[in-house]
Structure prediction request, 284 residues.
Amino acid sequence: GGMETAVRQFQPYAEANLGVNFAIEAVEGASGVIGLNKLLSMPADGYAISIKSEASLICNWLLNDANFGLNDFDYLCSFTTDPGAIFVRKDAPYQTLEEFVEYTRSQPEGTVTVALSTATDMCALLAAQMEKELGVDWNVVGYTGGSKARLAVINGEVDALFCNYFGCASIWDDCMVLGIAKNENTIENLEGVPTVNDALGIKVDEIDVRYILVAPKGFIEAYPERYETLFNALNSAWQSEEFLQMMDDNGMHGYIEVQDGETTSAEMAMYNDLLTQYKDLFEN
Prediction:
């Protein structure tokens, strides 16, 4: 999916800066709880880190009764900014967001299916807020990863996909974007695509999917120089001309936006409060 792709893209640049190889392991199960518990069982020395999106991490303790919480991690940095978007097949019977809503209202309640990469993806908040604002009822299906959700919309298994835009680069040729969950559309690739609020005259929150790197709590305090070395190596990789040119060549201009540990920690606390506020919408 998009998360692993993001890691593989910067991996060689970061490895060159650090002079070591990354051993990348995908640990499946319980929406990430199993993998994060494996991380937390390891020493807080910086040699074991993990990647998650902010919302999927928060929803582990908010909705999945995980045995860890906001204060069990050191938030090392975030490095992407990826707006929530609404994808449909290019041959769908609706070609605008307004037409998709009209189509929903013309069908029996709960029969129009909306896919999410996971049930705890940040775009779950977008779907829940839109349902409430519009007074519609979608059949919202959380898959076990972005690749399965993207395949579902391409195959016509679902009517639409709510997912982060850049993370869905693999389906750009097969799908179109009806709207994005931003206050303003500044993405070069999406010129002319309206924001959800502008298209429908409603008010939903901005959905900005960020990938963050985390370590067990205590790493930064115990090894501040080691953290600085790690962050600087990663940041240099993300800011290198070669890496950014590769991203631009792949249509990913604007995808990389680095935030340090302090900024990421503050944003995590903010999103934790926001998602807690809308917990009932997720559960419904």
